Amino acid sequence: MQKGQTNNPNGRKKGSPNLMTKELRELLRTAFNDEINSIPATLKSMEPKERLDMLCKFLPYFAPKMQSIAIEDNRDDEGETIRRMVWNKKGITQQ
Fold first, then answer.
1. From CA 56, how far away is CA 59, in angstroms rounded?
2. In which region does residue 89 sit, left (phi positive, over 0), alpha (psi from -120 to 50) or beta (all else)?
3. Residue by residue, what is the 3-state secondary structure of 15-66?
4. Exposure of 33 in the CB half-sphere (CA atoms within 13 A)
5. More reliable by pLDDT, 27 or 74
6. Tens digit of pLDDT for each residue in 65-74?
7. Helix (H/G/I), strand (E/B), else coil: 90
8. How much of the chain exceeds pLDDT 70, in percent?
9. Alpha-carbon distance 85 to 83, whole Å?
10. Model confidence over 51-66: pLDDT tens digits?
11. Residue 78, SS3?
């Protein structure tokens, strides 16, 4: 069998969504919309520690984590370059 071929010629066409997946997504969307509308009232009813824990769980969805990066600067500063040029002209070896 070649890539892209199937033994079921009456199967779902390429790119068409699975009906069950579509229905499940709509059901989840409705459930989450109802819950999202009740979040402010739910947070107000919580103890401060519980509220903070809940907000910390939501935070990655509103403010993605920043990654630390390391910058390596291999360039010489201008003074060092001039110093090397002078040393080389005078025949002085670097220490």
1. 5
2. alpha
3. CCCCHHHHHHHHHHHHHHHHHHHHHHHHHHHCCHHHHHHHHHHHHHHHCCCC
4. 6
5. 27
6. 777 777 666 6
7. helix
8. 73
9. 5
10. 999 989 888 888 877 7
11. helix
Q: What is the pLDDT of residue 11?
A: 74
Residues in the chain, overall count: 95
Residue 56: name the closest of 43, 69, 67, 45 by CA: 43
Give me the residue spans of the domains in the chain. 18-42
Q: Tokens for 47?
A: 């103890």
What mean pLDDT is predicted for residues 2-7? 73
Residues with Cβ within 8 Å of 46's Cβ and at least 6 positions away in sequence, in order, are 54
pTM here is 0.39
Closest to 51 measured CA to CA, from 41, 61, 37, 62:
41
